[in-house]
# Entry
Amino acid sequence: MWSRLEAGVRDLNPGYLGLVMATGIVSKAMDAEGATRLSGVLLVIGIVAYVLLAAAYVWRLVRYRPEFLADMRDPHRAFEI
# Structure
């Protein structure tokens, strides 16, 4: 299990932060439509995702600096499959 987690962090796509943005946008839209409970649930999901992704990106920067810096130098790498 640890090796799978390590591999996941090493290959973590910078585009995953889009999850946090999208969740926040939908949360605001739900609030504007009066679905405050759903908005709150989405807000919590967005916050948890942000904290987990921030920790994973810091881990990646410390442990896999060359891969992290390669992604920062070439943003198109985020769209490679």
